[in-house]
Amino acid sequence: MRFDPLKALEDSELLPPGRFPGGTSQAEATQICQELLESRGWEVESKRVQTIYTTDLIALLYLTFLWIAGGVEYLAGTVDFNWFCVWLILSVILHEMQFFRRLVSAKTKATELTATLGSTLQTKPVFEIFVMLTSQKPAQLTRWKSLISPMVRLVGLLVTVWAANDWINPAPSLQRFIFIMWWVGLSIYLYFLARLLELSRQVQSGRTWPENRESIGFVLELARAWALKPSSSVALRLHFKMSDDCSNSAPESGLWINQPGNSPGLWISEPAGTNLITKVCDDLRIPFEHDKAFARSLPTLGGIIAEGPEQVAPHGMALMSQVVHQSALRWAKSL
Predict the structure, then answer these.
(1) Residue among 293, 325, 306, 268 nearest 2 (CA)
(2) How many CB atoms lie within 10 A of CB 283?
(3) What is the model's pTM?
(4) How far apart are CA 159 and CA 61, in angstroms?
(5) pLDDT tier at 141, thresholds 50, 70, 90
(6) Does the domain spanning 5-48+112-137+210-334 belong to CATH 3.30.1300.10?
(7) What dihedral do alpha carbons 108, 250, 2, 243 form, nearest 10°?
(8) Where are the domains of the chain?
(9) Cα–Cα distance, 257 to 252 (Å, whole number)
(10) What is the Cα–Cα distance from 200 to 158, expressed in whole angstroms?
(11) How far apart are CA 242 and CA 112, in angstroms?
(12) Per-residue confidence (pLDDT) for residue 193, from 0 to 100
């Protein structure tokens, strides 16, 4: 399979940034992908789906608003201390139950693509490749976001413990401490809000790197290379999706493609009990990191993103193509 990473990068440059469900950029990107796939011999099925789109920014904004409102009401004397504590604890619980995310989630229509290569799927086992059409930051660059919920829980737990102590043994010092915790919590929430706001601005404008266009370009080039010389033992099916819901696919039959990196190594994540990609990387002596914290129902493959140049390393893309090709062959052989 003659995979050309430079061609993959060329394809990625055709895609507009800021591809969000229901937007014009998303529709344009979908059309470009469909035309490229069809020109390379693939049969493409487009499907309109309803997807839910929301952001961590709006959810945390709701929590911060309730946190501020509770403090203002308490300082104004509208609510007493006990109700002030209940208000704070309840706001934390609602945040952790994802209530605010569901409250502000927007349902919108978007187009997903499924590509097959002629009639070969009728006689061969099918290995499926999934890639996101939407703009997204890779997990490696947003790990600080994983600290938001633990910090929210910590502040909520401290307020809960000290409020319980105050109800059991009322003391002015306990009330002062809870109000200090209110200020601490507010500072934490405002800090994360500022980080999320900056990240949102970068993603919306397409200024952030990586912006996930390269992963789509990778799959488009994979389609071209596979069509030139299809495997005699396994067929490929490509899915360009708006969400990571792939519940209709068995975990052993496919692979998620994430953002290629600017380093020659790869990062992988596999569901418990599976080690297909790990074994392939070991046998091919390809350096990789195993991210157990990044969980999907299917194995996930991406590039390592390190501090440095804001561009994909072509060599890393070539390694990804080797792993995809070899994983598909081994999977089919194991049936």
Answers:
(1) 325
(2) 10
(3) 0.76
(4) 20
(5) low
(6) no
(7) 10
(8) 5-48+112-137+210-334, 56-103+143-205
(9) 15
(10) 30
(11) 6
(12) 94
